[in-house]
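User: Predict the complex.
Assistant: Input components as received:
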Amino acid sequence: MLEAVQLTKRYSSIPAVQDLSFTLRPGQVLGCLGPNGSGKSTTVKMLTGLLEPSRGVVRFDGRNIQDDLTSYRACLGYVPEEAHLYPYLTGWEYLEMVGTLRGMQRALMESKIDLLLELFSMRPARHAAMGTYSKGMRQRILLIAALMHDPEIFIFDEPLSGLDVTSALIFKNLVQALGKAGKMVFYCSHVLEVVEKVCTDVLILRRGTVIAHDSVANIGKILGTSLENTFLHLVDDVDTMRVAGEIVEVMRAA
Amino acid sequence: MSFSQRWQRYRERPFWRLVELFVERIFRGGGDTDTEGLDLGVGLVLTLLAMPGGFVSVLLFDKYGSLLQWLRGQLHVDTLLIALPDEYFFIVLSMAVTGAVAVWRWDAMFPDRRDYMNLTHLPVSSRTILFANLVAVLFLAALLAIDVNGASCVLFPMVVSAAQGTLPFFLKFGALHAGAVLLASVFAFFAVFSILGILMALLPPRFFRRVSGYARGIVVVYLVTLLCTSFAVPDTLRRAAGSAPSWSFFFPSAWFVSACQLLRHKANPAMAELARLCLPGLAVVIAVAFAAYAVGYQRHFVKIAEIADTPVTLHKSRLCFGFLEKGLLPTPFLRGCFSFVAKTLMRSEAHRLVLTGVSGLALVLASQALMNAFQSTTSWRAAALTPDALSIPFIITFLLIIGLRVVFEVPVEIRANWVFQLLLDADGQESEPLARTVIFAVVLPGVLVGTFAVYCFLEGVTIASLHILLVLVWSVLLTNIVLIRFRKLPFTCSLPVFKQHSIVILISFCFGYLIYAGSTPEFEASALREPLRMLELLPLVLIAWYVQRHFANNAIEIERRMIFEESAPRTVEGLRLSE
């Protein structure tokens, strides 16, 4: 079980995340929603151990992850928001490096890389430099890197960006399958429909604090409407139709 | 209307806005990848480029000052004659610096995929982009020529005419000097630009990227050779009897200095012959550069859309052989990171360029040492035991070890280092063993095997074994010293900040070179005649070993932790109680 307990992160005394608490159990797929600047990325960095909280702890199976980051990260699969990769390495070389750093046995690692590349339709480009990959291809390499060592926890930060329709559909089903297989999934996204479809629970952030945390079904029931409307109601006090109309007016101004 | 107002009006025109964009791109970055690391500010770059010419001019006051000449008893000095080597050096310096900058900005001089994606959908014709980029390149060439030579164009004639004291002499000397160095700068720039254009015009895009790295390396080696031979060429030219030596035709710097001498009526027939190549050579280089640019632009930029999605397939390589993995790379950290570091060294252009430059310098110095070894003898066996010949492996190992250590500090795709931050144990203390393994793997096998084979053939197994043993011990000690408190994964940390002791370290390396590649071979040359004398080095080795162990062991816990970001030392450390 992964627990975030009163997580707070301040940058030069300005809070980016404040008193964030939640629990992620095996089989649970927790969606994290929030507008830009709401603290999603900071939360993800604290959950992965890339950033140390100013206050509060992240516990995995009851232990503070900061006490033994190496063994915690061995159980973690992470797909970052931006696909920053080394452009001169090939997809195969990158995955081989990640597998080696994770201490995977070579034969198992190579067979998994081969099979996953095939399943993600990346086999033909596996020996091409990643600098020549499209955004979607780079994203698929990151997904394979996160999956290949069979981790307990998955943290996906905007994993669908750049993926083609087929890969995106496969991925959505994959997230659900991971949940059913007893994995813990923390899923950050801007795409409300996907969160609504693949997540069991949802966490909505605004200006670094939690403003809603419940199952997707319950949140819908409470407000009696779709997740999209709930999100707009809770987070942004903006009349989107009016803003769109004004944009068209400005565009057409002589 | 003021200049800034006029420029603002020009900026409103699409063509000049494009020129501004391309000038900005040439200075601030280029290429298709978002590489980071060597992007310095424009002002700092221009200042750094202007400095060598200024410094060298100031240092020459000592040579040309009339009082100092009088004190030395040099009463009748032919200023133009003694100025020849310095004139040649300034021409070479101008060519080397300008050429090096052109090589550095190689990827940024042509419009790339980013320009294509941003500009081609706008109502701007392909021809406008072509000419705007050409104007930007011409602007860069002019700016470099003026910046690199500006200080020397004023200071050097002042220094030389100090003893003459006449304004006409100063003006005439200054005009000729300025003409020569400026034209040499322009020549060097367009020579590099034409090589780039020819490669783009002739090679298919997928091969161009592979070949361009090697081409840049060859240019760097050529420029280093030009610099390292600058002290020998003028004297040889001055003494040349009859026609110019055939090798001098391959040194454009010799054409320009000869043209200067011809216009000063000081040229011998060899110089006159070379001087005639000056202007035609410059015209040919510029013409070739323009033609190749136009063809290369047509072949690459206009067709980017067709080639953009064609991934270049690399050969699947396995750098880690089984025995290497089990013996030298026992942990996952070392196995994974060794492969990463080796591939970065081979494939990252910036790193390959720096290493090629260092290797070129090592090659030139080693060649000079070899030539010196044969000055007093013609016998291979006798020459092999001279300090000069013995110093060759020391020169190569010293420069390569220091070069690699410097290259480790240059970051590559720093935003991609998240994967190492996520996967590596920061307290594992394996950075130093990794760096040491890489240095040994890159430097030692070739040098030791080559040296052993040559000395085994010339002097027998005993001498060969002793020689490579000394090279090995010295290399290990030097590697350990340069890696004291090294706690980074190579290429993944931001550039180091300037520290006050950096200059001390730089000077230490210069002295270190004299001991490592100068004094050691001197001692070895005498000790090899009585091999037991080699034991005299043992106390020195033990002291060096103890000192570096002492520094390594005395590091506190936080100094051993792996870092991914270099932070400037704070003048005042705040308590940050609010956090």
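The CA atoms of residues 19 and 253 of chain A lie 46 Å apart.
Let me know if you want any component modeled separately.
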